[in-house]
Amino acid sequence: MLSLATVLLGSGLVLRANAFVLPFRSPTSCCSLLGAEFNGDTEPKVFSNTPLQATEYESLSTYWTPAARLNPTCIFTPTNTQDVARAVKLFTRKNCQFAIRSGGHSYNPGWAGITNGVLISLYGLNNISYDSIHGLASIGAGNRWTDVYGALLEHGVTVLGGRNSDLGVGGYLTGGGISYYSNDRGWATDNIFSVEIVLADGKIITASRHEHKELFRCIKGGSNNYGVITKFVLETVDASKPFNAFAIGYPATSNNDFISHAYDYCTGGSDADTKSHIIFAASISKVGGFANGLLGSYSDVFDAANPAPVLRPFFDGTVPNPAPGFLSANGTIKVATDILSIVQAPGTRYAMGTFSVYADIQLFHTLRGIWEEETTEELKDRPGFMTEFAFQPVGEKWLAASAAKGGNSFGIDRPLVMVWLQPRWDLASDDAMMVAYTDRVRVRCEQAAKTAGKFAKFRHLNYGGRNQRNEIIHSFGTANVLRMQLNKLQYDPLNVFGRLVPGGFKIPGF
Ligand SMILES: Cc1cc2nc3c(=O)[nH]c(=O)nc-3n(C[C@H](O)[C@H](O)[C@H](O)COP(=O)(O)OP(=O)(O)OC[C@H]3O[C@@H](n4cnc5c(N)ncnc54)[C@H](O)[C@@H]3O)c2cc1C
Ligand SMILES: *[C@@H]1O[C@H](CO)[C@@H](O)[C@H](O)[C@H]1NC(C)=O
Ligand SMILES: *[C@@H]1O[C@H](CO)[C@@H](O)[C@H](O)[C@H]1NC(C)=O
Predict the structure, then answer these.
(1) What is the reported pLDDT for 41?
(2) Which atom of ligand 2 is nearest to the CA of 127?
């Protein structure tokens, strides 16, 4: 297979796919064609920024972070798979550029939005149903997790989804997806049973471990590169036990203990008790100064006075002066994730950057030192500034669960720690400065990890920054990239989802 790929790629087939360049049709003309195509429908499905449609257009253009907002020429709101198929077929035939949006939680402008082109907003694909015989949940690709969790809890089950319930299912699931259940069950994407996808020619197919198997694997990490996914069928998890989630703050003086116990959790703790889950984070702001914190969960009965052993050091004062707060106390995943979506409220400017390392106490200190050093007084003085630096372990059991479910495109062969950096600020005029800061910290940290011999090449797609466009899928490794390229040639030979969908993380060569 590898040699075939080399031959294909060597022959310039990929380049030829890209060289198939007609000028793009003007977006205004594309919107008129689309309007005509759906003219007969009872509900309007194409919205432009005209006085008559300004209210709908505005609400459809709202993103979690206003830093990601663009102004599409028109917005298309399909209500079923056939609508999506007709539209995509039209875009392919007429050479119209477009973008695909599910929950709109991407941090990057143009990933789920477009300026000169059509935005497909999937929010009308909001079916949710549960098949109790097979234990499978079928969810439309425009849902947000809050509705999914709510509907499934009525049946006593849940699924691997966002820790913040306002996220969309489409971007989250195709990019990986870290869930509170990941230590036990792998990435959320590993828990997809099948997808319904609209290909460039408008064909609707189902991919799973049994049909279109290679495509199915490539979609787990394939983002928007193969088609518009209209439906996900997900494996479910029993939700009869109570669910606990907590956020704990620690003063800067506990730094050494915090890092040392975080290291322990990253190197065995998450495997020792897969009902537990922790993200370690730190923040800096002008007013709040420096603080350590964690966001964690336990998917069973949990008593703060007598916690599960892997969580004990974070509650009992071993890491000094914990200040715990519960997002959900013996409650449900819906309660916990709804509260986080209020805490992480929409409406603030953000940027993002990510890389991964192999766990090492000294390196953790070095990385945090770089982040603190680059967080200058000048930045801290900008209105609304706060910066967060987070560590998320991926352990043996997480990886074993992924492999047992058929594998994905990520190419992770041993435990690692994903790291991400996330500043927030108020003014659009500070965007460039904040993005440059994010990139500077990331590049310096990657260099330090390489110097320490602890750099892990993997980068989580869902946390990729706008200037990491070409390095995310590349980081999945040569073998996975080749598989993804071969599947592109088979399922999207004209590279519609690269050429006509300019936004997002793309497969190298497309
Ligand atoms: C506050 C906050 C909390 C977060 N928490 C978590 C977390 O707990 N775990 C985690 O893993 N990530 C988390 N993320 C990251 C999140 O997973 C990504 O932002 C993800 O892209 C959100 O999904 P979405 O559907 O809202 O994305 P969108 O912004 O709608 O889309 C993101 C990308 O996916 C593509 N896409 C979306 N739907 C489809 C589809 N149906 N078919 C083809 N392509 C599609 C889009 O074209 C776009 O390029 C968080 C982000 C934020 C802002
Ligand atoms: C939603 O579910 C209903 C009832 O099962 C079905 O008729 C309809 O086609 C579904 N819509 C989509 C978009 O899948
Ligand atoms: C959860 O319930 C148990 C008893 O069943 C109790 O001991 C514990 O304190 C509760 N946890 C929280 C966080 O309220």
Answers:
(1) 87
(2) 1
Ligand 1 pocket (Cβ < 6 Å) reads: 64, 100-106, 111-112, 122, 141, 162-164, 167-168, 170-172, 174-178, 223-224, 228-229, 344, 462, 503-504
pLDDT at position 261: 98
* Pairing of the two strands 118-121 and 74-76: parallel
| Cα distance between residue 9 and residue 67, in whole Å | 37
Q: What is the 251 CA–ligand 1 centroid distance (Å)?
A: 32
d(CA 62, CA 49): 13
CA-to-CA separations, 68 to 115, 175, 423, in angstroms, rounded: 11, 18, 14
Backbone angles phi, psi at 437, to 5 degrees: -60, -45
Task: List, in sequence order, every residue forming a beta bridge with 118; answer none if it has no partner.
Answer: 74, 98
Residue appearing with tokens 């759906």: 38
The reply to whether the predicted model has a pTM over 0.85 is yes
> For the chain, which domains are there?
27-121 (3.30.43.10), 128-239 (3.30.465.10), 243-468 (3.40.462.20)
pLDDT-flagged residues of the chain (< 70): 1-21
Q: Are 158 and 138 in contact (CB under 8 A)?
A: no
- Nearest residue (by CA) to ligand 3, atom 10, is 303
Radius of gyration of the chain (CA): 22
Helix (H) or strand (E) holding 276: strand 276-285
Count of CB atoms within 10 A of residue 141's CB? 29
How many angstroms separate the alpha carbon of residue 126 from the centre of ligand 2?
A: 9
Is residue 344 a contact partner of residue 432, using CB atoms and an 8 Å limit?
Answer: no
Residue 140 alpha carbon to ligand 2 centre in Å: 9
Provide the CB-side half-sphere exposure for 270 (13 A, CA). Answer: 32
Helix, strand, or coil here: 330? strand
Cα distance between residue 345 and residue 347, in whole Å: 7
Question: In angstroms, what is the span from residue 144 Cα to ligand 2's centroid?
Answer: 17
Which one of 79, 83, 127, 228 would you pick to mutate in the ligand 2 pocket, going by the greatest count of ligand atoms within 8 A of its CB? 127
Distances (CA, A) of 24 to 100, 149, 291, 298, 506: 17, 41, 50, 51, 19
Atom of ligand 3 nearest to the CA of 330: 1
